[in-house]
Amino acid sequence: MALVYYHAEPAANSLKSMIPLKEKGLDFTSRYVDLHKFEQHQPWFVAINPEGQVPVLDHDGTIITHTTVINEYLEDAFPDAQPADAPLRPRDPVGAARMRYWNKFVDEHVMNHVSMHGWHRMVGIIARNIENGEFEKLLENIPLPDQRKKWATARSGFSDSDLANAMDKIAYAVDKVERQLGETEWLAGDTYTLADINFYAHCGMMVERMFPELEIAARAPRLVAWRDRMTARPAVAAALAGEDRTAPGLRTWTGHAR
Asked: Rounded to an integer, what distance in angstroms lies between the CA atom of residue 211 and that of residue 258?
């Protein structure tokens, strides 16, 4: 058995599938893909994932992409490798359904809105520092049309109305999670699951730092306590300690780049 995990910095999508690998104690080879050098669009990487996006899991030559799919694949391929407290995907149908409900919510109603602010702050800075001719060549190498549009929009800047709408969606998600944590210890119930990992990686870990205007400590104290429980897990700490080559001035996920 050989596992290779292609990833970028320990944040968002790359963190989301790194945590289950660590939680399950799986042996894997880490392959850092430098997004700041656009390695995800280079021929060697596109040959692995034609969409030109990280992360990617290579399991004995089988390529798995998209984090929610990767994480469920790990549960199916390695059902006996689990944290001591509980499986990352509940074994009962109701628990699994609840986990998938929250994963769907994060994937469809959280991730892209947080990502927009990240792209506006960090990727926009990178894109504007690229010369015109070079930027057009960069766009030509991006396989997915939507990603090409996203890069072009980041260069010119997202509109105030789009950013405000995204902020409203993030605030709604924070309040929804806060209510849920008033009923259950973890998002999908009384055990820690892939749903917690998903929200943590895309929003929960850095929502205070990225969006201080939300006043998270006062608005969502249960979310803060949940986040601290997440961060204290040894596997999460190990994942967060992964390679990070982001320039200090561009550390969107720490709130420094505004």
From this structure: 10
